[in-house]
């Protein structure tokens, strides 16, 4: 493990420490993607409902599926529809919401239910490209881990295609 990885893990441990759950279990997701845009535009894509609807992709989505995003006081809600009926709701609160750093909760209810987990997103870069670093911790089962891994891979891939030059 590199010195840089150890330093990043120490920073994340500080953000993810909570008294009510074990967010340091082995079921954690860590990924990064380079986006050809400045950090301000990437931050908007991560936090504005109209942009979230364009890149969040859930496993099993087809042409009959769509997402409706909402902002709430200090948080967000994502309603997923399949064949005209809401089948999944994702809610969370922002614990940190700064231009280059986000920490928010994530809880699913509906056809899939999951206990609350935490997501950290860091944005690093300059005017022409931004590295998005994502850590999702506190996943409760292998099934949830696999679903979330597929969701983040497809969603971040879509976000990357949106920012292609």
Any key phrases for this structure?
4 helices; alpha+beta; 39% strand; Alpha-D-Glucose-1,6-Bisphosphate, Chain A, domain 4; disordered N terminus; 165 residues
Give a verbal description of the structure.
This protein has 165 residues and is an alpha+beta fold. The chain has a single domain (29-162), classed as Alpha-D-Glucose-1,6-Bisphosphate, Chain A, domain 4, CATH 3.30.530. Helix content is 31%, strand content 39%. The chain contains four helices and seven strands. It has helices at residues 3-16, 39-47, 49-55, 142-162; strands at residues 29-35, 65-72, 75-82, 85-98, 101-110, 117-125, 130-137. Strands 1-7-6-5-4-3-2 form a seven-stranded antiparallel sheet, sandwiched between helices. α2 (39-47) packs across α3. The longest helix has 21 residues, at 142-162. The model is unreliable at 1-6 (pLDDT under 50).
